[in-house]
Design brief:
Layout (H helix, E strand, L loop, with lengths): L1 H10 L1 H12 L2 H18 L2 E7 L6 H4 L10 E7 L2 E3 L3 H11 L5 E10 L1 H5 L8 H4 L10 E6 L6 H6 L6 E5 H11 L5 H10 L8 E11 L26 E6 L4 H14 L5 E7 L4 H17 L5 E5 L6 H11 L4 E5 L3 E3 L3 H4 L1 H9 L4 E9 L12 E3 L2 E4 L2 E4 L19 E3 L6 E5 H7 L11 H11 L3 E12 L11 H17 L47 E2 H11 L27 E11 L2 E10 L8 E9 L5 E2 L1 E5 L6 H8 L1 H4 L12 E7 L6 E11 L2 E6 L8 E3 L12
Parallel strand pairs: 1-2, 4-7, 8-9, 8-11, 9-10, 13-19
Antiparallel strand pairs: 2-6, 3-7, 4-5, 4-6, 11-18, 12-19, 13-14, 13-18, 15-16, 17-19, 20-24, 21-22, 22-26, 23-25, 23-27, 27-28, 27-29
């Protein structure tokens, strides 16, 4: 039952999250808070009037009927029909109005109801009634799922579609004034949009409550973007304004040629100049770049081109700033030399689409949708490289990176234009006066996070950074390059991240455009609920084991010699890594382990893989993970032991359940939670190289398995001596 319970929770984490959220509330304190709020409500005379609506496109006259006399002292709660408010929704939504008289508008999060199969791909009968019963919506056979966790007020997102959703409240005087000014024949969406845009200089007037207070009855609506196209762009951009295109580049003449020629041939907007900033190409490449620019100049005599060459250590920020000083345009476009313009109708309009936003008074930096170039000549769906940057608990991240641009990804994050905390300087457009107002790129951040830090400053200055998915480009960043695992690079990356948050401490772990209940503390490119299973939580290694951790070198060498000659990658090969523990042979090829990857995030190593003990019920095993330090200059080696915290791995279960292997592995059961996901603080480990091992007990029998002896599957810990970063004013 314990295995089945854990399996259900990992397949439907939102259901457990809902229960945990309820359990977190202390009943006594909740009652006290309700009493206080109730008294406050009576003292201020606040009343709540509910106004049901069918769609954001409804006319206001169909919602606020002639029989309803608007009262300036009343809060008007708009609730979409065909859904259910949570029990405390009115109380929770009223509270911001009571606490702050400046608040005029409040909205909250929502989710959807459906069957287990619809929401979580769980078939009826997969789990016992005793497990599923507690998660059902009361008095129904339905469950809750697909949480829509929204950003704080996002004016440009609101222009794209009605992201406000199904439940929101307006102060009576604000609603009365809006209807008086714009009339009742306007759509609800347009009325809300124009009223909220009036408050854009006072963001505290618009409150987002990060709680799910409404459940939709129709799951199909989760894929709809209500009102898309209803609000026409309110841009003052009239197709004029010079753009200075600043391209840092060194020793990449061929790549630069692709970038420049595609831009010149496929960009509809023509009022721009080119500024190439070179920090020290070789003489041969410098000459080649000069020839390229001369050829472009001859073909385009009216195009202004500058080539700024200066030998210096690579510093992306300094190169961008150097180009900005030489620029004469009203707008600055920072562009990587590995960007390529698409020869499509949408591709050709990329710069105009970005200018539509960059010209707005409330907008700071504008980013484009970047694709990895296709691996073949077949067009789309392309893989996303960038659709904005989120500021997660583990640091800045490119959400949806590597995901195919197919369908509607988390309420249009790949389809419509969104306000984001940051966009990448691989393609970033900003008005020159805005750039000068907040200051240039921080040159102390030479390699990483300089674009994020610049966007942080824009946000703190009151500007909104916009991800424009209407502008699409190829970014020839290597899709398969993986992580920089060299310790020196990790130290530098960690230091630059520390510098970023030293400069902006209030934004560490905080992103107003990324919900606090979305994934924060694990690598995840999609928009998933942040529910931390035990395997997702970082662990600090215990002191080296006193007995098993100090193993005779001679006997350990026998293990290495034996294991290094075997393979374990596939179920059907027949050769397995397997071992004996306490030097007694237990079984033939029963222990199977595969390490998928060892990646690094600052001082943390993230080890992923799986382990299965064949011919056994894997739900009944006592399993430990080991990190085994390799050393050949001593008689002993150290190991660290960790609890095995199971992770759902449907792909591993499929290996044992497919037709070819079902008979062969019929005695191997309960393998869906076979995943290895270990997050280790390497700063607490001894310096050295480590093998990953699994040790299992089933009754009196013991089994062991280790990954292959390959550098890519070894954990390396090195103590780098480096002066601490000194932060000045």
């Amino acid at each position: 039952m314990r295995y089945e319970q854990e399996l259900f929770v990992q397949k439907a984490p939102y259901l457990q999250w809902l229960i945990d959220e309820e359990n977190r509330q202390d009943e006594l304190s909740c009652r006290k808070e309700k009493d206080i709020d109730s008294r406050a409500g009576r003292q201020t005379g606040k009343q709540v009037c509910t106004l049901p609506f069918l769609s954001c496109l409804d006319k206001v006259s169909d919602i606020v009927k002639e029989t309803i006399a608007l009262d300036n002292t009343v809060l008007y709660l708009f609730v979409k029909r065909d859904g259910v408010l949570s029990q405390d929704a009115c109380l929770i939504i009223s509270k911001p109005f009571i606490e702050n008289k400046q608040v005029v508008f409040v909205y909250a999060d929502e989710d959807y109801r459906g069957s287990l199969q619809e929401l979580y791909n769980i078939e009826q009968g997969d789990f016992q009634e005793d497990i599923t019963r507690q998660y059902r919506i009361k008095d129904t056979e339905s469950y809750r799922g697909e949480p829509w966790l929204k950003p704080d007020f996002s004016p440009d997102t609101l222009e794209s579609f009605f992201y406000i959703g199904s439940v929101f409240a307006i102060r009576g005087d604000k609603l009365s004034k809006g209807i008086e000014q714009y009339g009742k024949e306007i759509s609800l969406y347009k009325l809300i949009y124009v009223m909220l845009m009036e408050e854009i200089a006072s963001p505290q007037a618009i409150v987002h409550i990060p709680k799910v207070l409404y459940t939709n009855n129709t799951l199909a609506e989760s894929q709809e973007l209500c009102g898309i196209g209803e609000i026409k762009k309110q841009s003052s951009f009239q197709g004029s304004g010079k753009v200075s295109v600043i391209i840092p580049s060194k020793d990449h003449p061929k790549m630069l040629q692709t970038c420049l020629t595609s831009m010149i041939h496929y960009t509809n907007y023509s009022d721009y100049e080119l500024i190439v900033v070179d920090n020290g190409s070789s003489e041969e490449n410098k000459t080649e770049i000069g020839r390229l620019l001369d050829a472009i100049q001859r073909e385009n005599p009216s195009l202004a081109i500058q080539y700024l060459y200066e030998k210096m250590q690579f510093n992306f920020s300094r190169m961008c700033n150097k180009g900005a000083k030489a620029a004469s345009g009203e707008y600055l476009l920072f562009l990587n030399d590995d960007i390529e313009v698409l020869n499509t109708p949408q591709g050709r309009n990329w710069l105009e689409n970005m200018l539509e936003y960059a010209c707005r008074s409330h907008v700071g930096a504008v980013g484009a949708k970047l694709y990895y170039p296709p691996q073949s000549k077949v067009e789309g769906p392309y893989q996303i490289q960038h659709v904005g940057i989120t500021n997660m608990g583990i640091g800045p991240a490119h959400k949806l990176a590597g995901v195919e641009d197919r369908g509607n990804l988390y309420h249009g994050h790949n389809l419509v234009n969104y306000d984001m905390i940051a966009v990448t300087a691989a393609c970033m457009l900003v008005k020159r006066i805005v750039f000068e107002r907040v200051g240039s790129f921080c040159e102390e951040l030479a390699v990483a996070y300089n674009d994020v830090e610049f966007c942080f400053r824009l946000y703190e200055a009151g500007f909104y950074n916009v991800q424009v998915n209407d502008a699409v480009l190829f970014h020839h960043e290597s899709f398969s390059r993986g992580q920089d695992i060299e310790p020196e690079k990790q130290v530098r990356l960690c230091q630059e991240k520390e510098k970023l948050y030293y400069m902006h401490p209030q934004l560490q772990g905080n992103d107003p455009f990324y919900h606090p209940h979305l994934v924060q503390y694990k690598k995840d490119v999609e928009y998933h609920l942040e529910y931390l299973f035990l395997c997702d939580k970082p662990v600090k290694p215990q002191s080296p084991l006193k007995k098993q951790g100090l193993v005779m070198r001679k006997k350990y060498d026998k293990w290495l010699k034996y294991h290094s000659n075997l393979e374990h990658n596939k179920v059907d090969i027949g050769k397995r890594i397997w071992s004996k523990i306490y030097w007694r042979r237990i079984g033939d090829g029963l222990s199977m382990m595969h390490i998928d990857s060892i990646t690094y995030e600052g001082t943390f190593a993230i080890i992923t893989g799986w382990y299965v003990l064949q011919k056994y019920n894997n739900a009944c095993l006592d399993t430990k993970l080991w990190l085994i330090r390799l050393t050949r200059d001593k008689m002993y080696f150290h190991s660290y032991e960790f609890e095995f915290m199971p992770q759902l791995r449907e792909d591993v279960a499929a290996l044992f359940e497919n037709e070819e292997n079902r008979t062969k592995h019929k005695q191997t059961t309960h393998v869906k939670l076979a995943g290895i996901h270990l997050i280790v603080d390497t700063s607490k480990l001894m310096e050295g190289t480590y093998m990953v091992g699994v040790l299992t007990k089933n009754g009196r029998k013991r089994f062991a398995a280790f990954q292959e002896y390959r550098d890519s599957e070894l954990l390396t810990v090195r103590k780098i001596t480096d002066e601490s970063v000194q932060y000045g004013e």
